[in-house]
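Hey,

Quick one before I head out. I ran the complex with magnesium ion overnight. Inputs first:
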Amino acid sequence: MLEVNGVTVRYDTATVLDDASLRVEKGELVGLVGPNGAGKSTLLRAIVGLIRWEREVLRGTRQADITFEGDVIFEGERIDELSASDIARRGLVLCPERGRPFVEMTVRDNLLAGAYLCKDRKEVEKNLDRVHELFPRLKEREKQISGTLSGGERQMLCIGRALMRQPKMLLVDEPSSGLAPRLKEDLFKRVEEIYHELGVTILLAEQDVSFAFDLSVRNYVMSRGHIIAHGTAQELLGDETIRKTYLGL
Ligand SMILES: Nc1ncnc2c1ncn2[C@@H]1O[C@H](COP(=O)(O)OP(=O)(O)O)[C@@H](O)[C@H]1O
Ligand SMILES: [Mg+2]
């Protein structure tokens, strides 16, 4: 479903991603694990067209030179030349790390904003019901101003908003970032439900290796901009060098 071939991203001379390649088949939940600063978020942002967008926005306004190389193929077609909104329209949606809702809008309006590409009202209502089923808390708080939500609720809203776009594939960036252990567990359960019950293909970037390994079919391990290993949780944990040096377990 998704194929990333030799993606390199440089900010000036700093190489943040170096020749990264990965594949995700339809119906898989694939983990992308690695420590803080490994390049996970940059890779996800590169896939959905945000590095190229950043390069356009910054062109001429600052000194830094952004390099983007490589191909990204989604459902058999090159998407690395498309705009971020065209990529989302094809059903490949990023749920960003510590995603920020529109803080002055209500929870409900934020979710509806996620559905801006869908013109069919009934379809939108149906998706909203589905998000409310998954996250009853968002239903309870639908009139609350989003800026006043707790960290966990905000994360739910971010995932809910991504689901309002009816993704075929979700790139979820550290859903549990900054949350207490119990909330973390709860959020991972929701990710699992999105995968099993809604049938959405998922690429999950996560520092918390144990959570990612619990859910994933396969995993890629990143370190300093490189994908250094790939395999099932069992295979990766069975390799002592990988386990100790890269997974810190
Ligand atoms: N917009 C940017 N400009 C310059 N450097 C960046 C930018 N985004 C990320 N980086 C750098 O790239 C490296 C990888 O970051 P990131 O992709 O956020 O890693 P991870 O998500 O694995 O923690 C970091 O050293 C970070 O500072
Ligand atoms: Mg990150």
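Residues 172 and 210 are 16 Å apart (CA to CA).

Talk tomorrow,
K.
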